[in-house]
Design a protein that fits this description.
Layout (H helix, E strand, L loop, with lengths): L2 H15 L8 H13 L7 E9 L9 H10 L1 E9 L3 H11 L5 E4 L7 H7 L21 H7 L8 E4 L7 E5 H7 L7 H13 L11 E3 L5 H4 L1 H4 L8 E3 L2 E3 L5 H15 L13 H8 L3 E6 L1 H14 L5 E4 L17 E7 L6 H14 L2 H16 L1
Parallel strand pairs: 1-2, 1-3, 6-9
Antiparallel strand pairs: 3-11, 4-11, 5-9, 5-10, 7-8
Length: about 375
Amino acid sequence: MKPMVKKLAVVMTSAILTASLAACGSASNESQKAGSTASSKPAKPTDISITTLAFAAAPTGELEAVKKLNEKLNVNLKLSWIPSAQISEKLNALLASRDLPDVLFIEDFNSTPAFLNAIDQGAFWELTDYVKNYPNLAKYPVNVYKNASLKGKLYSLPRVRPLDGHESLLIRKDWLDKLGLQPPKTMDELYNVLEAFAKKDPDGNGAADTYGAVFPGSPGPSSYLLSLFGTGTKWKEENGGLTPYWWTPQAKEALINWNKVYKTGGILPDFPVLKTAQIKDMLVQGKAGLAIANIVDAYKYNVELQKTNPKANLVAFELPKAADGKAYYEQASGFYGQFLINKKSVDEAKLKKILEVYDYTASLEVTTWLFTVFRTLIIN
């Protein structure tokens, strides 16, 4: 593994294990002090098997971040990696085999609904009454836990992400400049940009091989296509009944608009079957010039894009305004993926140890260390 890739793998591992928020891991320190007075012989490390996802090549060997966690918390973390593009298939196969790890990463219950049945059957720990006892986990925003809960109960540790700031237009600014266009501020301007990206050879290679936008077909991100028009993302109480957000005048307007864009080639044709991870691929490969994604993704994707095209410039812009003159931003779920804890292989004592690990990785100490590593990578 190349040095830079190895460094990034270390950071990724810590980021995956953490749900990164603030405060200090004092609970683990106190428990270690108490244990040292009871016996001079150190306790045997607790084995914890974790299956999670890898966005790049799976790391090999023992990562420094994991080694530090093992030593500090007296655990033996055994990580198994699943490539992000295969996560749903592999998870369903794992559940069918009934050979589950102690901790299991679930990306989206919509693509792995069998796990919902397993939860109903008591296969995983219910954590509602446990997380409040861990100072860092207890500080996660209430809405994050609410959104991650099922039937009012928490069965997972959410992999925390910001509730706000996740929606922006990522646009190839160099394509706009080449075609003499401005960043779109209205839906009509957005339509014109997407049509131009599809038909006017924005990359200048003389071939009709570009599309306006790349959108994923998964329910979460694709709902933005409607919410941009003011539909919201939840059912509405009206006249004593419930109206789904996709059964509103705004939703009809959105569908008419996107149908028009689709027919011009302004959207990647196979977007209904695309996965979220493929957004980056289409942007980095120069196949599409626009996406709806996190603001920070503009920087991350641009780094990759400029490796093959130094003149490329992917920039984050505000969402365009709907017909009523308002720009609609929806609050995110506050997490990407969830960690389930296997009740068959984990007793309560081990459960508390696992929660101690995740609580520590959500501490200010670990967050500061991650920031330092990221800063070093950027400078170097």
